[in-house]
Each structure stands twice: as structure tokens, then as C-alpha cells.
């Protein structure tokens, strides 16, 4: 299976509100609210990272099975990609 890379895109502004993260894209006029886990994923992708690495960190930090974590992270990132907040690309060949 090819590794997928994730990177932040656009002009999204983010601010913590309690345990959540509120995000806004002024150019698109969109607002998103992320749970504490979503906020942690957003933090982990501050630099372009492999989804594998994001999942490995989350499995270490939370009580979650690797397969369940991967499925949830991929679904979450696909939703963010639909809003233009991230880009998902295949990792370059080594």
C-alpha cells in the first residue's frame, strides 16, 4: 500500500476554544470545529507528514487500535480535504 502524505493548505486560521479547535478560512468563508482529537491531528500535521506517522503517534497517545485509528484518521483527513484545509498526496518514491 502506498504511503499517503498530508499537508495543510489554504489560509486557515485556527484558535483553541476549550478542548476544541475552531478554524476559519476567510477566503472561502468556511468555519470548522474540531474535537480535541481532531485538534491533535491538526497539530501533528503542522509540517507535511505521512498519515502512517500521524496514526502511530495517536496510537501511542490514545487508547485506540491501529486499524480503527487509521480508518478514523483517513476519514477525518478526507473531510478536511473536501474543505480545502489539507492536501493528500502519495509519498514520493524512495
Report what the structure shows.
It is built from 3 helices and 6 strands; from the N terminus they run ββββαβααβ. With 94 residues, the protein is of the alpha+beta class. It has one domain. The chain has a 3-stranded antiparallel sheet with strand order 5-1-6. A hairpin with a 2-residue loop joins β2 and β3. The radius of gyration is 13 Å and the shape is globular.
Q: The biggest beta sheet, please? A: 3 strands, antiparallel
Share of helix among residues?
25-40%
Q: Assembly state here?
A: single chain
Judged by helices, strands and strand pairing, the structural class is alpha+beta
Determine the strand fraction and express it as a percent band. 25-35%
Order of helices and strands: EEEEHEHHE
Shape: globular
How many domains is the backbone divided into? 1
| Helix run count | 3
Number of strands: 6
State the gist of this model.
This protein is an alpha+beta fold and 94 residues long. The protein has three helices and six strands; from the N terminus they run ββββαβααβ.
Which features does this protein show?
alpha+beta; 30% strand; 94 residues; 39% helix; three-stranded antiparallel sheet
Q: Helices, strands, pairings?
A:
Blueprint: E1 4-8, E2 13-17, E3 20-25, E4 30-34, H1 36-44, E5 49-50, H2 51-61, H3 66-82, E6 86-90
Antiparallel strand pairs: 1-5, 1-6, 2-3, 3-4
Helix pairs in contact: 2-3
